[in-house]
């Protein structure tokens, strides 16, 4: 039986961690939204207006995810879990890089691109080990399949689960996110009073709200450096040599 007294690291990741694996981000100056306006490919209205275009957009993104590989940050979290730490990952990313690296407790706030789901029953989900979704692909109830992705303007069904996980953290580590997407960004307010919050991001000094420790490094450098300290000492703490 697992020991729930193990140090519990809760990780909240955004597109910055996946960008280091070659997955194009959405909000950067050269990101996906610069090429594809949100209202044309990532809203319920876009789906009703032109489902073929929406499916094409996500089919291309799906192939990009399949070509990508987990990077040093993804692998570091999996290694920490293998050593005996309790590691819970909450991600805004729709890729499967955390799972491919070996992490076993991953909550996808915004869905999973390698799954399709029914347009009439969100509980009906279908893995997509290859290929994409085409018009005419239907669920077992006879309705068109859509990407298992939360679009702008839709509810975030797993947000209550994320709140519960964050409330059990010994340390909250935020990696590669601008903290601009709500309600996900509000998770920082739910950590236990004695649990530190740490942001790892090249722009950490500008992004981190008051009270959050800043580590201004890319995920692929900052996360492995932290994890090496934790593995060596068997506890979650913030080395001052990394801060700033």
Strand order of the largest sheet: 3-2-1-7-8-9
Net shape = elongated
The biggest beta sheet reads:
6 strands, parallel
Radius of gyration from CA coordinates: 18 Å
Provide the structure class: alpha/beta
Named CATH topology of the largest domain? Rossmann fold
- The number of helical elements comes to 10
Helix content: 25-40%
The CATH superfamily name of the largest domain is TPP-binding domain
Uncertain residue ranges? 28-34
The amount of beta strand, in percent, is: 15-25%
CATH class of the largest domain: Alpha Beta
Family: Belongs to the sirtuin family. Class III subfamily.
Pfam families: SIR2 (PF02146)
Enzyme class: transferase
Catalytic activity: N(6)-acetyl-L-lysyl-[protein] + NAD(+) + H2O = 2''-O-acetyl-ADP-D-ribose + nicotinamide + L-lysyl-[protein]; N(6)-succinyl-L-lysyl-[protein] + NAD(+) + H2O = 2''-O-succinyl-ADP-D-ribose + nicotinamide + L-lysyl-[protein]
Architecture overview:
- NAD(+) binds at residues 92-95, 176-178, 219.
- This is NAD-dependent protein deacylase.
- There is one protein chain.
- The chain is an alpha/beta fold.
- It contains ten helices and nine strands.
- Helix 9 links the parallel strand 8 (197-200) and strand 9 (213-215).
- Helix 6 packs parallel to helix 10 (219-233).
- The model is unreliable at 28-34 (pLDDT under 50).
Concise synopsis of the structure shown:
This protein is an alpha/beta fold and 244 residues long. The chain contains ten helices and nine strands.
List keywords for this structure.
single chain, 244 residues, alpha/beta, Rossmann fold, SIR2/SIRT2 'Small Domain', 2 domains, six-stranded parallel β-sheet, three-stranded antiparallel β-sheet, 10 helices, Sirtuin
